[in-house]
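Most newcomers find our protein records easier to grasp once they have seen one. To make this concrete, we reproduce a full record directly below:

===
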Amino acid sequence: MDGSLNMLGMGIAGLGAAIAIGLVFAAYLNGVARQPEAQRVLQPIALLGFALAEAVFILAIVFAFVL
């Protein structure tokens, strides 16, 4: 039973990461559509947000298999 609960937690973390990544890139596209000249400023911020959201999911995978 413990293994299936770990995988359930990993699935919830994956869903949260997918939602976060979608929100990051939606905000990025919205900002670039409003001010195209701000793309050089917004792109690194969007990639940092993507990396942080993905890191949360990777940590969830590690914790699911360790615990």
Notes: The chain has a mean pLDDT of 89.
